[in-house]
Design a protein that fits this description.
Blueprint: E1 2-8, E2 13-20, E3 25-30, H1 39-42, H2 45-54, E4 58-63, H3 66-73, H4 77-103, E5 108-113, H5 115-126, E6 131-137, H6 153-156, H7 160-163, H8 170-175, E7 179-185, H9 192-204, E8 209-214, H10 221-235
Parallel strand pairs: 3-4, 3-5, 5-6, 6-7, 7-8
Antiparallel strand pairs: 1-2, 2-4
Helix pairs in contact: 2-10, 3-4
Amino acid sequence: MITDSWHSDRLGHQITLNRWGEVGRPVLVFPTAGGDAGEIERFGLVAALSPLMAEGRTKVYSIDSVAGRSWLNGDDPRHSAWLQNQFDQTVRWEIVPAIQADTGDLPIISAGASIGAYNAVASLCRHPDVFGAAVGMSGTYDLEPWLRGHWTDDFYFSSPLHYLPALEGPVLEDLRRRFILLATGTGEHENPGETWRMADVLGQKGIPNRVDNWPGWSHDWPTWRSMLPTYLSELTA
């Protein structure tokens, strides 16, 4: 693992970017709500992806879940929504350039589980100029209940479920040339309805997507360690 860290003026504190692998299609994996850039290694996801990295098919990156921690900690939801929007801008204008400096202009695959799935799908939907595909696993796509009634523009423009229905123009045209893969288990703590709702919004805008059900699989790392290698193998074939 190679680690880079810097102070982000957009976020107001340090952010960390970890990298695994030497060559291949860049994959940015967002951690779960409370996770950091090293979470995917501690929970065995990097090991599960090691055969693809050994074949030179993928190069894996991960960052800190800055906004996710704010939502999880119960901060003022207006601040959390602002931070979510700032996090998106940090991804586009700090994280993506760092990845591109390492791999060139290959379209990045975004991926993640739970709130990480939200960030993966949101990053592609807002920035199809740099993200080519997304993999959302066991996604938590609707953060509106966490607003506790404090609706803001920051939240609206960060939430694909809410802004995509009104989206038109060049960004939508770019999105219609991208692909979003949504996977959900049906076991403990899973909520397949959120995945299907996300897929419905994407489908209504003509954005290519696919939903895969994993019957009986739970909202936990063993599920995601099986899902992500399967889908990255497909997307990097």
